[in-house]
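Hey, I was hoping to borrow your eyes for a little while. I've been puzzling over a protein and I'd love to understand its fold better. The fold is given in discrete form, as structure tokens running alongside the sequence. I'd be grateful if you could look everything over and explain what you see. No rush at all, and the record is pasted right below.
>
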Amino acid sequence: MATTFAPIMPLRKAIGETELMWMMALLMALNAFGIDAILPALDALAADLSVEGNARQFVIGVYLLTAGIGALVPGALADRFGRRPILMGSILVYIVLSLLSAIAPTYDMLIAVRAAQGFFAAGIIALPPAIIRDRVGGDKMARMMSLIFVIFLMVPAVAPSIGEAILLVADWRAIFGVMAVAGVAVGAWVHFRLPESLSEENRQPIRVGTIARNMTRALSLPSVVGYVFGSALVFGALFGFINSSQQLITETFGAGDIFPMVFGICAGSMALASWSNSRIVERFGARRVSHTALFAFILVSACQVFFAFQPEESLWHFVPLMAINMALLGFIGSNFGAIAMNPFFAIAGAASSAHGFIRMTTAALLGGAIGYAYDGTARPLALALLASGLTCLVLVLLSEKGKLFGPSDAEAGMGTS
């Protein structure tokens, strides 16, 4: 009788929770670096490519918008073919289009390439929550996502300084080259270390009806819809700050020489809050923590409106309040995301894509409108922060049927799968 042997496969140590969190965070950080590193170079880019006024912000806004639209695609494909191949394809596109951005001869061409990059590389931001949801759910997922956000937010905190350092030795085009190098490094790590997390029994067929049904369910479940749309609004206000931050700090407050430091303080506060959230969320529950943070966000936003309408608002009124509100978003974002994803273990890819689509497109459109409304003051941003916080509260109340500060998943006896 003939004897058959199983093919010998190279042994690879299983990826641990800590390595997985760092990997997912740095994947998402590729997206953040592609946005924030170019901020110090907007003046040089605008001068080089003959861009006038607030139109310079489109290099940021179009990337955010198309990334949101593109988020509809990778999740459905990843639910059928697995997370790894779709993620690797997204990273490859990110690398190639970063290089094309570096050599774009005109602003229109640069905008077109950035739009394509946001759309086709959307998997790097849409798939990490699905990969985490494949392993855990509930408040444990909220804790892991908080730790991921700590690492992820280190990049926005330092990206403008990296961009500024690159400008000391090269022009703005080199920033896109560094983006490509970062994509190669993270892509190699994913290729060699990330196992497939989607089980065979949870693979979904590629049928338009099935995909539409899964995404519709992910966006229509009453208990989560307020968290998806509510987080889209508050992050839209944050995107408004990102879009207009360079002009606000440089023109309104006359502090262009310390722009990277100011931006780093704000983004760093968000990272610190995410770390704090990871320490407390499993004890108190994602709902209690995020609902408390939302009320504080509204209160701080009201203070921002007050100071923005004073005749001589100073940088040192603006920065502490903006940093506090960004810190509060560190308690809101990952918790809202975990609450919204928890019911969708079997269709995590489709749910992640659907939620990412709503969050990113809504936030990008709102952020673009806020940034384009920049009038030389912080008033448009302050009003948008307050309005988004209040509307978010209404949406969460609808999802929770008027009852806030609910128990943790452990107290409620909820499972993670």
